[in-house]
Amino acid sequence: MIDLYTWSTPNGRKVSIMLEECGLAYRVHRIDIGKGDQFTPEYVAINPNSKIPAIVDPDGPDGKPIRMMESGAILVYLAAKTGRFLPLGLRGRYQALEWLMFQMGGVGPMFGQAHHFMRAKKDEIPYGSERYGNEAKRLYGVLDARLAATPFLAAEYSLADIATYPWVARFEWHRVDLAAFPRVKRWFDTISMRPAVARGMAVPA
Ligand SMILES: N[C@@H](CCC(=O)N[C@@H](CS)C(=O)NCC(=O)O)C(=O)O
Q1: With a 6 A CB cut-off, is 51 part of the ligand 1 pocket?
Q2: Would you call 4 helix, strand, or coil by DSSP?
Q3: Which atom of ligand 1 is nearest to the CA of 112?
Q4: Which residue of 31, 52, 125, 184 has the fewest CB atoms within a 10 Å radius of its CB?
């Protein structure tokens, strides 16, 4: 049974969706990042960067336990472990990794900053909201253009979609009207219908 250390945020939900999609058994440990659980010595031993998510798999690649931080690396690990959601063909595989990195380097950090300036700060700082709000909209444009060519970010449903979905699910938080990005909306609605996605989005309960 894999131990998942998580909280109710998009980065955590990427991993719970992947675990659900892969049909892997897992146990949820709630790391309340509002209360500072991420800084306890016990948790830092699992994630030296004091962020969620993290996993511990007692059955690592060499049969010994492995701990992992960084949601993108965890998705790649789980895809390799199960042979799912990372295409086997090299072209498809690199496409999926390309869009996973786009999520990790662009969508996650930029939407996260938009949320910070638009919601977390008590006194809204217009410069921050405008800068990260504009960048979020620009990234939606990139996603929309990509999804005009393919139903999913890579040639098939993959870890790139799983990584991006929980961030787009917060479109209201970064003040984006999904109707303005019709291909993203179509993609979002399609993925929302997957039962494993609904289960993963409800973690932690
Ligand atoms: N690049 C990391 C980012 C993880 C991250 O920023 N997690 C946030 C929640 S979504 C967190 O734990 N924040 C707590 C903090 O910053 O103290 C990943 O993808 O795993």
Answers
A1: yes
A2: strand
A3: 10
A4: 125
| Contact in structure between 19 and 4 (CB atoms under 8 Å) | yes
Tell me the torsion sign for CA atoms 84, 86, 87, 90: negative
Query: Atom 5, ligand 1: which residue's CA is nearest?
Result: 51
pLDDT tens, N- to C-terminus, the chain (205 residues) = 999 999 999 999 999 999 999 999 999 999 999 999 999 999 999 999 999 999 999 999 999 999 999 999 999 999 999 999 999 999 999 999 999 999 999 999 999 999 999 987 677 788 999 999 999 999 999 999 999 989 999 989 999 999 999 999 999 999 999 999 999 999 999 999 999 999 999 999 9
Whether residue 37 has its Cβ less than 6 Å from ligand 1: no
Contact between 170 and 176 (Cβ < 8 Å): no
Kindly report the protein residue whose alpha carbon is nearest to atom 2 of ligand 1: 70
CA of 166 to the centre of ligand 1 (A): 14
Of all protein residues, the one whose alpha carbon is nearest to atom 1 of ligand 1 is: 70
> Which stretches of the chain are assigned E, i.e. beta strand?
2-6, 26-30, 54-57, 66-69
> Can you name the residues that pair with 74 across neighbouring β-strands?
none
Q: CA dist 139 to 84, 108, 116, 129, Å?
A: 27, 11, 17, 15
- Closest CA to ligand 1's atom 20: 70
